[in-house]
Amino acid sequence: MSTLLIAEKKKAAKAIAKALGKPKIIKKAKNLEIYHLSNLNLYVIPLRGHILEYQNTDQYKSWSKSNPRDIITDPQSIKKVPIKYAYPYIKVLKEFASKAKKVIIGTDADIEGCNIGLCDALPLIRKKNRNIQIEQLWLSSLQRREIVAKYQSLVKPKWNWAKTGEARAIIDAIIGFSATREVTNTLKPVLKEFKRIFVSIGRVQTSLLYLIYLKEQEIEQFVPKSYWNLKAILDLGDPLIKAYHTSNPFEKKDETKVKTIFHKIQQSKHALIVQKRTNTIQRKPPTPLNTSKALVLLTKNLKISANTALKTMNALYLNQIITYPRTESDIYKPDFEHAEIIKKFASHSIYGKFSSKLVQTKQFRPTKGKSDAGDHPPITPLRSLESSSSQLKGKTQKRVYDLLARHYLALFGENAVEINKQLDLTIEKEPFKARITALQSPGFLDIVPFLKKRYTAPLEILENQIPLKEILLEDKETRPPPRYTDTTLLRLMENNHLGTKSTRPGIIEILIKRNLIYAVKRQYHLAPLGDFLIQELMKVWLPFLKPDFTKFVEQELEKIQKNQAEMKEVVKKIKNVFLQLFDKFLSSKKKIQQDMKNFLEDRENSFQKQTIKKFPVKNVYCPNCKRQILDCVIKSDKTRSLICPNKDCELKLSIPKTGYFKALDSKCLICGFNIFSFRRKKRGKVYTYFICPYCWNEDSEVNPKRTFCSECKKYKIEKNKCVER
Known about the structure:
Elements (H helix, E strand, L loop, with lengths): L1 E6 L2 H11 L3 E6 L2 E6 L4 E5 L5 E5 L11 H6 L4 E5 L4 H11 L2 E7 L4 H18 L4 E4 L7 H8 L7 H33 L13 H16 L5 E9 L6 E5 L4 E2 L3 H11 L4 E14 L7 H12 L3 H13 L19 H8 L6 H10 L32 H17 L5 E12 L2 E12 L23 E13 L8 H10 L8 H10 L3 E4 L2 E4 L1 H13 L1 H4 L1 H15 L5 H21 L1 H15 L7 E11 L7 E7 L4 E4 L8 E4 L4 E8 L6 E9 L2 E7 L1 H5 L17 E4 L2 E4 L1
């Protein structure tokens, strides 16, 4: 009798088969190949991720003929069915099951992988072979040596991990199916106005949308406060050092006071040193990377999305370049073979110098993080690859590999030594402070320059006074809090227990695809539909929106993984809590429906002109308040306007409906506003024309409104600049 080995993906199956022998390929379908190793009588069968999914049973498929609440209460409301692409894989599993004595679950070594192997594939195998033996292959990388070693020391199936994934799938299906239907049916009259058939609701994605909404409200309600900063530029060579008055910031009410100080010291030539303090700071190397830390590192430094970062790491893993990228651990086991990996990098054209020093000094002990979760080692490069290597596919893979490799080597580096000088100064008896931070010894920073701070060159200040270059009085305003980026969203989700290390990037992607949020220059904005949805749900369903419910769900799921609770009991408990939340929504349904009715009556035709997209226009400031960057607002009737986000400013400049536009650096010589170029395609040809949006909306002494720059009587556009005719 033969043995089956189930892998999660085609590349993993191929790597496992090649590591264990010389496989013969058995073609079973267009993209399905089985690997047979006659020396082990082993068949390696790849899957394509999940091959089964939860769907509503026939009784609940109709949205109009079934009650969404019954999806929660009826155990027969959902069932597990094959995904469309899964039938060839299911056929193969059943065919080979009857020939096998044992099955080895070799899917990815995490909760999702265990669920795919033990809850998707295994039940299909058992239908044909009830008595089949089951073991599990637990891999942290697809390196040949590890595959061989782990194949010889198989482990017992991790049933609790598989059941944790199964419980999550059941709960998310029940919550998603019931809530999406109920909310969609309730908001249906208004959803039509957004040209949407349904609105997607999920315990994680909707909670995240709520947190993004809160940030948007914080930004919208932000009232800037004016203040003054008094700054002195010290002339110590290159670079110039800044010193700040100890009373900064001066409030607006202190304008007379700060201006008096400024006039008093404006012509001063020197700053006197009252006190000088020097500290030496030992900056330690970074700690190893788990999935969350790696995603933050990559999104922050490479300016890529979290979803792209995780997909790229997964591709590097499948190509046997790094260890498994889904890990909770940031502490290495004592017996991890670091010396072998570091020696590979010693001949690298870029990392070689740093790595050779580690080998010579036998620095093979890495820093430690906070957790050894017992699942996998931290993310580690396994091969030394040049950037020109054909094994790295595309620019993104090269950049991700470079950061991961550099970060890994930095774990073994020496401390960086910083020299921090703090100067207490007086200028005409007015107190100022300056701080100078220099890098005395780079240590580990040599290999990870992206982790460097802004350092000044080392300075020796021997005199008791410092020449002044200039004194500046800055009239400033407080800024609103920044919007979320991929990096800050990942941290937000981790802090609020939203999703898992592996699912977080995908959840952000879902909100984008469903037009609930959108990104402008890597910053996430709330889309009108997302804003409308949360505003309505907040009135009646705040307990569901807050992260507390999702945190409770994750804590209960963790009990299954740790064998502290049975799957059925946890699912039942969570369903009961959600049912109470669901009933709270139902009890307020009439109020929401009345709100919908009032909303439609009040807005009538004007609702057709609701905002469907809004984004800032780079370097275009409001000509009225002169502080805010203008937003381009697109309405559902396709009209476009430039609007000042300052609520006290009423500026609104309409611009043409069609054409890709760009704000030029050139200013209109009539009004001083930016010139815009518009590009349109008509009958296969591209046409470019120019307007000044301010003149376009106003009559001027030179031209009537709606005048193109080409029609202007006094000026013309030449090489993207407004010049006299």
